[in-house]
Amino acid sequence: MSLRKPPLPRLLLNNISCMRNAQQILRHVNATVHDGGALVLMGTNGSGKTTFLRMLAGFSKPSAGQTPSKRSSQSSTMFSGLKSLEGKMGNSLPALELMGLGRLAKELSMGQRKRLQLARLLAIDRPIWLLDEPSVALDADGVKLLEYIIAEHRKKGGMVIVATHLPIEIEDATYLGLPPRFPRRMTSIDMLDRFNI
Ligand SMILES: Nc1ncnc2c1ncn2[C@@H]1O[C@H](COP(=O)(O)OP(=O)(O)OP(=O)(O)O)[C@@H](O)[C@H]1O
Fold first, then answer.
1. Going by C-beta distance under 8 Å and a sequence separation of 6 or more, which residues neighbour residue 174?
2. Which interval of the chain is the signal sequence (predicted)?
3. Phi first, then psi: what are they for 127, rounded to 5°?
4. pTM across the whole model
């Protein structure tokens, strides 16, 4: 029998709740991620995926509970990808403009811009990737590339936390489903479906 203790998780999220404008966005969320691990946050629009990532990055504070363990250090310099994969160009455009490539960048398609942002993510080399809807606008080939770079990052001990409403293949990932904030009313079609009528 081995007496070795299991390694401590790099990220420990303990009973996280989050209120915004007196509204409960996240309720009692728990998660742990080890080096080389992956956490996939699934949820409908408005369920709190981005809010969760922003808390992890230290951009906002939870109303209750504990975000990253001391071991991970609170420094947001460890994280990358949150903003870089958001929106059309993330915050790369000013830098590209400075280098005289702004016009070229603006002529890229949405998927090409996403690929450019993935390249940037690889180049800045941070241990923890927080990716908000990384596969939106990517074609099937692009999604495969994304899955590949995530797998390679994890092989080197990196961690990945992905918020998505699209399917993504990440081996041995922990999946965390956030409940919908505004569940839509059940229609008669849903009822027929649910009761197999
Ligand atoms: N600063 C804020 N003040 C008030 N409400 C906020 C704030 N930030 C987010 N919210 C609300 O919190 C909820 C969750 O938003 P969030 O962006 O985290 O959802 P999401 O799961 O990432 O959605 P999507 O899939 O549409 O990107 C939304 O209803 C949003 O209106």
1. 31, 32, 33, 37, 38, 39, 40
2. none
3. -75, -30
4. 0.80
Per-residue pLDDT tens digits for 111-153:
998 898 888 888 888 899 999 999 999 999 999 999 999 999 9
The region that residue 75 occupies, defined by phi over 0 for left and psi between -120 and 50 for alpha, beta otherwise, is: beta
Reported ipTM exceeds the 0.90 cut: yes
Residue with the smallest CA separation from ligand 1 atom 31 is 46
Are 59 and 84 spatial neighbours (Cβ–Cβ below 8 Å)? no
CA of 48 to the centre of ligand 1 (A): 5
**What's the fold here for domain 34-60+72-179?**
Rossmann fold (3.40.50)
- Residue 64 has which token pair? 């209750």
Å from CA of 53 to ligand 1 middle: 11
